TrEMBL record:
The protein's name in its UniProt record: Putative glutamate carboxypeptidase 2-like
Domain PA: 170-254
Keyword S-adenosyl-L-methionine: no
UniProt-listed PANTHER family: GLUTAMATE CARBOXYPEPTIDASE 2 HOMOLOG, N-ACETYLATED-ALPHA-LINKED ACIDIC DIPEPTIDASE
Amino acid sequence: MGNERVFAGIGGIVFLAVGIGIGVLIGWYSGPDRVNTSMENALSEEESEIQQRLLDLIDNTQIDENLRFLTSEPHVAGRPQQYVLAEWVRDKFTEYGFDSSEIVTYNVLLSYPSEVDGEESVVQHLVYNDTEDGYQVEYESQTSEPPLDETGKDKDVLPPFNAYSANGTVEGELVYANYARVEDFFALEDLGISVQDKIVIARYGKIYRGDKGKFAAQFGAKGLILFSDPADYTVLGEPVYPDGLYLPPTGSQRGSCLDGSGDPLTPGYPAVESAYRYPENGSTYLGLPTIPIHPIPSVNAKYFLSLMEGDEVIEEWRGGIEGLTYKYGPGFAAPSNESLVRMRISTSNQRTDAWNVIGTIRGSVEPDRYVILGNHRDAWAFGAIDPSSGTAAMMEVARAFGVLLKEGWRPRRTVMFGSWGAEEYGLIGSNEWVEEYSKNLDNRAVAYLNIDIAVSGTYTPDFGSTPNLYNTIRAATKLVPDPNPDEFENGAVTTVYDRWSLRDSGEDEPGIHDLGSGSDYAPFLQVVGVSAVDYTFVHDKATIPISPYPMYHSVYETYELVKNFYDPDFYYHQASSRLFAEMLRDLADSKIIPLNCAVYADRIGDFFTALKEGETGQKMVNDGDLSFDFMEDAVENLKVKADAFENYIANTLDKSDILAVREVNDRLMNFERSFIDPLGLPGRPTIRHVVFAPSSRDSYSSDKFAGIIDTMFDIDNNTDPEKWGKVEQQLAAVTYALASAAHSLELDMA
Ligand SMILES: *[C@@H]1O[C@H](CO)[C@@H](O)[C@H](O)[C@H]1NC(C)=O
Ligand SMILES: *[C@@H]1O[C@H](CO)[C@@H](O)[C@H](O)[C@H]1NC(C)=O
Ligand SMILES: *[C@@H]1O[C@H](CO)[C@@H](O)[C@H](O)[C@H]1NC(C)=O
Ligand SMILES: *[C@@H]1O[C@H](CO)[C@@H](O)[C@H](O)[C@H]1NC(C)=O
Ligand SMILES: *[C@@H]1O[C@H](CO)[C@@H](O)[C@H](O)[C@H]1NC(C)=O
Ligand SMILES: [Zn+2]
């Protein structure tokens, strides 16, 4: 860090003001206080041709073919068909002319619904019978979903189960806990209903199911039954599968209940041969549920819930099962008041291989800079939406890049394609790979683009990303033709951007949500601090509040479902592919990396204001006697430095000076790394991003400044004498990260 070479300094700032003036005159400066980076990458004729050719190459029928193949058999993580698909992906990358393509294997802890004594997991109603001198099974939940289409017939489908559920049998009384969110358990406490030693029955939805399991155990329940309520997975009067796309009463959601992500036995380290593996039953918390958790369809839930004792629940807790009065419990009403519920769960954990496939196209100018596009390959059954819609689309991006390669083009930076294994269990394949290569990624990864579910609706695109990618995303949507412009008044919509902004409720630009967790971008963002994008084409969530889509993780998520009810011609899949192809090209081939740190700094300013002026911030000041002054200074300074940096790029940087360009690009790439706290968030050492983190109350959603939010949670009920000190420590940690981010951009710091 010498002072000889002054990057820009005062002179640069003066020049920059002049530059803006000229910019306005000649019309390339847009926006009041910011230069749009993508403007700085005005394409040459040749580059524009590549851009257009890439979009033209993306073929909808090819994606249709990919999806049909990928969904012909169930392809659960660690199972033989998942390896067959890994080989297929590897061979495709090779066929497309990639420089390398390989299967990367990790040995990790997965979980399967094993039978015990020939019997599958069930939830039973036990009735005491004097004459038989004991309990008899009166009723039990279904052990599989009856197939309703051609794909589902005679295939080796795993029965519905919750991965990592504890194994064993528990018996007891039921308590209904709505969505089993922490606030639902608090509400039960307030009603004087304890779940201690009870079996909780709760509906799926609103939050990550693993968090439901975590809270049920924390509040003392000995088992958790999850069900898919029609209120959350159907629309009244709309046909269910196979007549429509809504979940039939026999449908059930599979899914993991791991608390955390990555291989449970090797937290923080890759699951390679030399790794230390913690014992499953040792003293280190590995995020494995301690109680049995099991999913049932609504047809079974109706039976159990209809027997329940107790008051009728409040309106918000009522689901949509017809003819049922929802009650809290505990236990069953007379004449069933002497009977019990039994969960007999034989799900068991097994060490198994997870297979990633990594395909690489080496960059022509900067081969040591990586832009990564990833998608998981494993599904709970046929996975026609999750994740194979994404796999089918990603493979078409790969094919298109391959064609350009064969025509002699090569991106400036290296492009990598990751096909991840065992995502469904807890983002395991991607997490282990990120851990294994964390130092390389730290020094070389420009951005990570994630495509999990490509199409789960045909209403509007839905993006999540770090703010430095907002402009890049919007620029791509302005280039990609809309998949169905006829849906709109003549000519109102020609590009995906038009549709998106028309259907977005916000004012200015269409909104992009913040990243929490729930797919493979999370390890990139949380472990290394790689800027990331996630995306899905979704249904109208405002009028149909189903998350993510009705058939999610059921056996009915088949090729027929997609073909008949979602995207018969694969135009929405094609648009998805094109969006990723263009974002990948832009990030890998633009001279200046299209990551805008000024937009990021502005967004942080918004988060700061929301925190400070919100209830949490007020409480911190009033009850905790804490001050936001230092953080406010850091936020303001970050804005100043980020604006100056963007303006330097726009107006001062000599773009023919390859070292100067590289220096700027390195800073743009590394900006996100400043937000990584090596110690992690409180109690979550592998969640390390201080601005964006999965919420502790729902890991699918995003908390801003989660360290502060977490230490403030339930602070009135917290008896720890150091509780305010812990909040203050988090406030200081965020302030430090923001200051680091500003330092990383300082123009006079060479
Ligand atoms: C109890 O068991 C006997 C013998 O299996 C059977 O006939 C009877 O119906 C049972 N009673 C009830 C209430 O289920
Ligand atoms: C699961 O529990 C049953 C008894 O409840 C036992 O027989 C079986 O061995 C257990 N399976 C595993 C894998 O621990
Ligand atoms: C953990 O499991 C292993 C293998 O089943 C067993 O040998 C060991 O005694 C168990 N340890 C504890 C603390 O339960
Ligand atoms: C079950 O209900 C019946 C009828 O109300 C009552 O006689 C009996 O005592 C109850 N049993 C228990 C265990 O509460
Ligand atoms: C404290 O805990 C009770 C339940 O025990 C809950 O109702 C209340 O909302 C909590 N207070 C806060 C501020 O979270
Ligand atoms: Zn998925």
